[in-house]
Structures are given as structure tokens and as C-alpha cells.
Amino acid sequence: MKQEEDSVMTQTIEFALIDDEEMPPIVITMGQDDMPKVVINRNHTIWLGLHRNTITSCCVSLHEKMNELLSAYLSEQRMFERME
Question: From CA 50, how far away is CA 32, in angstroms rounded?
């Protein structure tokens, strides 16, 4: 399990910079290799600059919320499996 966590931590995340009035400041999407891709919109540079510390601290909260969501989903799926 530790080795799996280490390999996840060392994976390279693709970043892209865009200039688009209609897109939000930051988007996390799927890249061509099905890995996470972070798109940063330079059109929001001032806002990004003002909130840079808050944005980066969101990672821990995002991780907790994703774990909560996915654990609930997996528990539900397991319950369905056991009912079959």
C-alpha cells in the first residue's frame, strides 16, 4: 500500500495555461492520458494572485471531500453486491 501511495505522489500532473474570458480561473479535468490536468486561466491573474494561498490550501479539503464522496459510493456498491 505504501508503494502505491508513493507512486501516486510522484506522478507528473499536466498543467496548461489559457487566456479565456468565459472559463473559470482554475479547472481540473482529464488529460489525454486519463490523468488529472490542471488548467489555469491567465485571464484571472489578479484574482488568482490575491487568493493563491487559499487556493493551494484547498487541496487538503478537496482530498477529504473526495474521500467522503467515494467511500459512500463504494459502500453503497458493496451493499448492492452483497444483496445479489
Answer: 31
Closest C-alpha to 58, from 28, 20, 17: 28
Grid cell at residue 57: 490550501
What residue type is assigned to position 15 of the chain?
F
pLDDT over 80 (residue 72): yes
Cell 479565456 belongs to residue: 20
Per-residue pLDDT, 84: 84
Beta bridge partners of 15: 38
H helix runs in 10-84, sequence order: 45-50, 52-83
* All three cell numbers of 72: 459512500
Q: What is the pTM of this model?
A: 0.73
Q: What is the mean pLDDT of residues 63-81?
A: 95
- Indicate the length of the chain as a whole number: 84
* Spatial separation of the C-alpha atoms in residues 70 and 76, rounded to whole Å: 10
